[in-house]
């Protein structure tokens, strides 16, 4: 009996409740989430637009190979991709830390998702518009950068935002590799405080605060462009 | 590169992996069906305009859409544990996936309902149909046709999300793979094969979705 009381007393000192300091800790971790997501989205979008352009111009051989690779990134769960590549880099003699490995995988994942969006955007521009631009004397690249991309951007923006928000949320999976972002930080706090409900709610609120405003702004933009 | 690939342990466990893959499909399909029912209800509630109910539906939808699926899974797994509700891994994954699917599908359905003209409801009603008949025979079939492709996408997401089950100890495809990998230390090999199995599952689902579409919706196209 006295033993169990003793253990209870010990555990009382071992687990400490949620403190205000922990909120700052979570905020810092949310910064990490934002950083890895911003990196992945910006680099992944550049790759994705390039892939999308390749898909839209290439005949079936190019489109089939690239399309197959990108399709694989879209059809395999991100968590499997992360574990697979995290264990693959050491095999080729390039051990990476969780942040670098996670970012690389997220970049390719984003690129695969953006590629189909970008392709749709490029193909949404009427061929007649593109031909008109060419016959006005614009070179292929001028036409691509000054005509197709700006017009295609409009139709691709809602889908692109969806992808970007998806990557922001999916970046939570990098916690599996051990990178301390928002979700990992909340798990660390749960282990210490044994108050999973409140901490998960706070972590959820952070994600919500990052994601919801962007979703709303895009919705409004989309509505304005439609009318 | 001084790493030797060992594929034999993976081949030995392949039947177990495929069985786990079936479990993945089972939970993903169940979560999808639950998600469709719940999502339909949420869409109706949101369109009904009753304030308290709308608030409830909006909270559900926005939470499901704006927080990571993994966080929702942990919430059902560990968060509910704080209230003494301890669910089995299967139920945790099913609840979390259904919650998430319902949130996304509710918005999809809402868009679908908006795409069907109001006049159809009035026309059906003036033909003497009840509300139930109007919705079940006129409106919902049209909505399902409109939202079929987004629904297929959601089904694929449902499969992909079920892989998170490994983090709450659910032995579906990913969980089984992790278990087998931890026993044999052939992490890369096991996860490579699992990636292939997921690819096949997704293709099977897309194929099945194409067949269903061909069977039910081909009339009146083109």
Automatic annotation (TrEMBL), chain A:
Keyword terms of this UniProt record: Amino-acid transport, Cell membrane, Membrane, Transmembrane, Transmembrane helix, Transport
Membrane topology summary: Multi-pass membrane protein
Taxonomy of the source species: Bacteria, Pseudomonadati, Pseudomonadota, Alphaproteobacteria, Rhodospirillales
GO-annotated cellular components: ATP-binding cassette (ABC) transporter complex
SUPFAM superfamilies: MetI-like
Protein name: Amino acid ABC transporter membrane protein 2 (PAAT family)
Subcellular location: Cell inner membrane; Cell membrane
Annotated family: Belongs to the binding-protein-dependent transport system permease family. HisMQ subfamily.
Primary localisation category: membrane
Domain ABC transmembrane type-1: 30-218
UniProt cross-references to PROSITE patterns, sorted A to Z: ABC_TM1 (PS50928)
Pfam families, sorted: BPD_transp_1
Molecular function in Gene Ontology: L-cystine transmembrane transporter activity
TM spans (from-to): 23-55, 76-93, 99-122, 197-215
PANTHER family membership: L-CYSTINE TRANSPORT SYSTEM PERMEASE PROTEIN TCYL, MEMBRANE COMPONENT OF AMINO ACID ABC TRANSPORTER
Species of provenance: Aestuariispira insulae
Automatic annotation (TrEMBL), chain B:
SUPFAM superfamilies named among the record's database cross-references: MetI-like
A GO cellular component entry from the record: ATP-binding cassette (ABC) transporter complex
Molecular function (Gene Ontology), one example: L-cystine transmembrane transporter activity
Keywords, sorted A to Z: Amino-acid transport, Cell membrane, Membrane, Transmembrane, Transmembrane helix, Transport
Keyword Secreted included in the entry's annotation: no
Family matches, as Pfam families: BPD_transp_1 (PF00528)
Primary residence: membrane
Domain of life: Bacteria
Membrane topology of this protein: Multi-pass membrane protein
Family statement: Belongs to the binding-protein-dependent transport system permease family. HisMQ subfamily.
Family matches, as PANTHER family: L-CYSTINE TRANSPORT SYSTEM PERMEASE PROTEIN TCYL (PTHR30614:SF0), MEMBRANE COMPONENT OF AMINO ACID ABC TRANSPORTER (PTHR30614)
The protein's name: Amino acid ABC transporter membrane protein 1 (PAAT family)
């Amino acid at each position: 009996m006295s033993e169990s009381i003793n253990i209870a007393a010990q555990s009382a000192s071992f687990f400490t409740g949620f403190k205000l300091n922990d909120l700052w800790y979570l905020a810092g971790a949310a910064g990490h989430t934002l950083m890895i997501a911003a990196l992945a989205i910006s680099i992944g979008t550049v790759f994705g637009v390039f892939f999308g352009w390749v898909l839209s111009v290439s005949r079936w051989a190019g489109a089939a190979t690239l399309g197959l690779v990108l399709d694989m990134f879209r059809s395999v769960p991100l968590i499997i991709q992360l574990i697979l590549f995290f264990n693959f880099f050491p095999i080729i003699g390039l051990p990476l830390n969780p942040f670098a490995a996670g970012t690389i995988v997220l970049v390719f994942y984003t690129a695969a998702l953006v590629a189909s969006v970008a392709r749709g955007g490029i193909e949404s521009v009427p061929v007649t518009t593109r031909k008109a631009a060419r016959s006005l004397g614009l070179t292929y690249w001028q036409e691509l950068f000054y005509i197709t991309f700006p017009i295609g951007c409009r139709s691709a923006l809602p889908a692109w935002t969806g992808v970007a928000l998806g990557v922001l949320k999916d970046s939570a999976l990098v916690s599996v590799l051990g990178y301390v972002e928002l979700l990992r930080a909340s798990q660390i706090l749960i282990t210490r405080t044994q108050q999973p409900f409140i901490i998960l709610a706070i972590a959820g609120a952070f994600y919500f605060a990052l994601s919801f405003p962007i979703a709303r702004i895009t919705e409004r933009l989309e509505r304005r462009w439609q009318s | 590169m001084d790493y030797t690939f060992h594929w034999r342990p993976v081949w030995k466990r392949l039947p177990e992996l495929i069985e786990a893959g079936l479990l993945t499909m089972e939970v993903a399909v169940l979560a999808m069906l639950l998600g469709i029912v719940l999502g339909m209800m949420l869409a109706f509630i949101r369109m009904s305009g009753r304030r308290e109910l709308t608030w409830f539906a909006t909270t559900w939808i926005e939470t499901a859409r704006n927080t990571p699926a993994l966080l929702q899974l942990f919430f059902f797994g560990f968060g509910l544990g704080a209230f003494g509700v301890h669910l089995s891994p299967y139920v945790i994954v099913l609840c979390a996936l259904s919650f998430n699917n319902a949130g996304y599908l509710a918005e999809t359905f809402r868009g679908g309902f908006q795409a069907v003209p109001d006049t159809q409801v009035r026309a059906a009603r003036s033909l003497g149909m009840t509300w139930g008949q109007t919705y079940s025979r006129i409106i919902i079939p049209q909505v399902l046709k409109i939202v079929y492709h987004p629904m297929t996408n959601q089904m694929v997401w449902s499969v992909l999300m079920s892989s998170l089950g490994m983090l709450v100890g659910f032995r579906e495809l990913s969980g089984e793979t992790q278990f087998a990998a931890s026993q044999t230390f052939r992490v890369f090999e096991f996860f490579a094969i699992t990636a292939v199995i997921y690819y096949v599952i997704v293709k099977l689902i897309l194929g099945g979705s194409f067949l269903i579409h061909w069977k039910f919706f081909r009339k009146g196209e083109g």
